[in-house]
Design goal:
The protein has about 550 residues and is α/β, with parallel strands linked by helices. It has four domains: about 170 residues, Rossmann fold (3-Layer(aba) Sandwich); about 170 residues, Rossmann fold (3-Layer(aba) Sandwich); about 50 residues, no CATH class; about 110 residues, Arc Repressor Mutant, subunit A (Orthogonal Bundle). The protein contains 23 helices and 13 strands. A four-stranded mixed β-sheet has the order 1-2-3-4. Strand 3 and strand 4 form a beta hairpin. It is elongated and about 110 Å long. The termini are far apart. The structure holds glutamic acid (GLU). The site of glutamic acid (GLU) has 9 residues, from helix 8 and strand 10.
Length: about 550
């Protein structure tokens, strides 16, 4: 018996690989177009590093008129959860990212290079495994789990590398006839790759991000088809990336050590190797030490965290873009109003050492993103968020007309307000604008310099009686604040007060603080004139009289 006959015995009913080579031809794309993929297991969970990969891949494929694929790697069926694919698609879509090809949900997909779920590609993998057996580069291995365990123990005791390689690869040189007999007798087996590499020899690999890396050659005879007939990840990804005509494999550098194996697989299968781009994972700093951001320890590792906090998706994407290419930040400064899609992402500028995740910085990006929203967009986004996460806020927003006015305060002008960096900040930032909620707070406010109750009452009643007119424009309002200050014996101008502070009990700023705190309960708010315009005459009178009459 020869290799060909052995291959026929193992895989009698599979197509010749030429069928697949023709079925999935080279793509007809523009020069330089990047074809890449996001290839998660269908666990439903999307890690922030995975989202970063998607942000980058989408940017690169848009930039080069390429293709971005979602491939589901479900060869390890233990990791699967119900609706895991749909959850991933939706989670990524929530960040405004769509795939060009690949799975849409558990069963449906789009694109001509599918199936896009590995468990649906069994016959394709078997065709390529058969091809390798025919070439004498794969073989059936009959080692039982006990035998393998025994072998591992011996290797550990002898302090040598563990694995199935060289002299340890017992079934590697089993004569074809003997292998065929065992198969016919029903002895269970799996299919292994026959490596021709040697641990003593070095290979040099060029990674787009990491540059040249030297490795010892692979010499492991890895499993390519498991007992359940499904491929292992290593084998499947080579076949898939080839047939999907992937040009760039962009993935986290936990896979770097697999490069020698992957290169040998691509070469033996006769495939052109894609460009490998291994980026450093996102890090966290803890007790002065850096470590990978962890699903177990860090809430911000899950993309759901950003939705729960109400950090708008574009802000998260911008921040991740910045982690990907640190020059994004200066580009953003130079182009504050351009859409992020205009930034030219460069893979080779990605960090080799890994960027630290910085929530403060993310929130800073976010407050800038939010500051550019119109009041209508603000309202829609906040309402959407509140419906899911904060029913009290949702309730406040029911009064749409009034809420829009609140969101309009210090917005849409040259220097928009920047005190909101996430939707979970909104309730606190606007609640005092609603009379009913404001009344619930009582009137035990923390005033500034002027905190004598009678003096406060005197200021407020003089204001209401002599100076308050809701129809005043901003300049008139401001001049009246000065007139009020002067009439009550305070300095009209802060400057004159500072020159002779002993001359007055305070200045116009202190008087405005009294008014601000009385109307809002806070010492720091957006522009008081704008707030008063939104509150309106009646609410202002009500709020001030409550204090005067107390
Ligand atoms: N399925 C692999 C993972 O979950 C994909 C690795 C790759 O991109 O090649 O990380």
């Amino acid at each position: 018996m020869n290799y060909k006959e052995l291959a026929d015995l193992i895989f009698p009913n599979v197509k010749n690989i030429s069928y697949y080579e023709e079925k999935y031809p080279e793509r007809n794309l523009e020069e330089g177009a990047i074809v890449t993929r996001f290839a998660p297991s269908p666990t439903g969970f999307v890690h922030v590093g995975g989202l970063m990969q998607c942000v980058i891949n989408r940017q690169l494929t848009n930039q080069t008129k390429g293709v971005f694929i979602l491939r589901i790697e479900d060869t390890d069926q233990k990791r699967e959860i119900e609706n895991g694919v749909a959850q991933i698609v939706n989670a990524i879509r929530d960040f405004g990212i769509e795939f060009d090809e690949g799975m849409i949900n558990e069963t449906e997909s789009k694109g001509d290079y599918g199936p896009y779920k590995q468990s649906d590609r069994g016959e394709i993998y078997r065709a390529y495994a058969k091809y390798l057996i025919e070439q004498g580069r794969a073989y059936p291995c009959f080692a039982t789990p006990e035998e393998l365990e025994e072998m591992r123990k011996k290797q550990e005791a002898a302090k040598i590398r563990t694995g199935y390689y060289g002299v340890w690869a017992t079934y590697r040189n089993l004569p074809v006839d003997e292998a065929a007999e065992k198969i016919k007798a029903g002895v269970p087996y799996i299919v292994r790759f026959k490596s021709m590499g040697s641990e003593d020899k070095k290979i040099r690999h060029h990674d787009v991000i990491k540059g040249n890396i030297d490795f010892p050659e692979n010499d492991q005879d890895i499993v390519i088809i498991k007992a359940d007939g499904l491929p292992t990840y290593h084998f499947a990804h080579a076949v898939d990336d080839h047939l999907m005509r992937v040009t760039h494999v962009i993935r986290s550098d936990e896979w770097v050590s697999s490069i020698p194996l992957h290169l040998e697989l691509f070469k033996t299968l006769g495939f052109k190797t894609p460009k490998y781009c291994h980026y450093a994972p996102i890090l966290k700093e803890e007790d002065g030490k850096k470590r990978k951001i962890s699903k177990r320890k860090d809430p911000e590792a899950a993309v759901s965290f950003y939705h729960e906090e109400g950090i708008p998706a574009p802000a998260v994407c911008e921040y991740l873009m910045n982690i990907g290419n640190s020059n994004f930040e200066s580009w953003r400064r130079a182009n504050p109003n351009l859409d992020m899609s205009n930034f030219k992402f460069e893979i080779n500028k990605m960090s080799v050492s890994g960027a630290i995740f910085d929530l403060v910085k993310l929130l800073d990006v976010s407050k800038n993103v939010i500051s550019k929203y119109t009041k209508e967009k603000m309202y829609d986004e906040v309402l959407e968020w509140a419906k899911r996460y904060d029913s009290e806020l949702e309730n406040l927003l029911k009064n749409k007309e009034y809420s829009l006015k609140i969101f309009g305060i210090e917005r849409g002008n040259a220097k928009p307000r920047k005190d909101i960096s996430k939707w979970s900040d909104v309730k606190d930032a606007i609640i005092y604008m609603y009379d009913e909620e404001f009344e619930k707070q009582g009137i035990n406010f923390e005033y500034g310099k002027i905190n004598n109750k009678e003096e406060i009452k005197r200021i407020l009643s003089t204001y209401l009686e002599k100076y308050f007119d809701i129809n005043d424009d901003k300049q008139t309002w401001f001049d009246k604040m000065k007139d009020l200050s002067e009439s009550l014996g305070y300095a009209r101008e802060v400057k004159e007060y500072k020159q002779n502070p002993e001359k007055w009990p305070g200045h116009v700023g202190d008087i405005s603080t009294v008014l601000r705190v009385s109307l809002t309960g806070r010492q720091n708010t957006p522009d008081l004139y704008e707030i008063m315009q939104v509150l309106g005459k009646e609410s202002i009178q009500k709020r001030l009289n409550r204090i005067i009459e107390s």
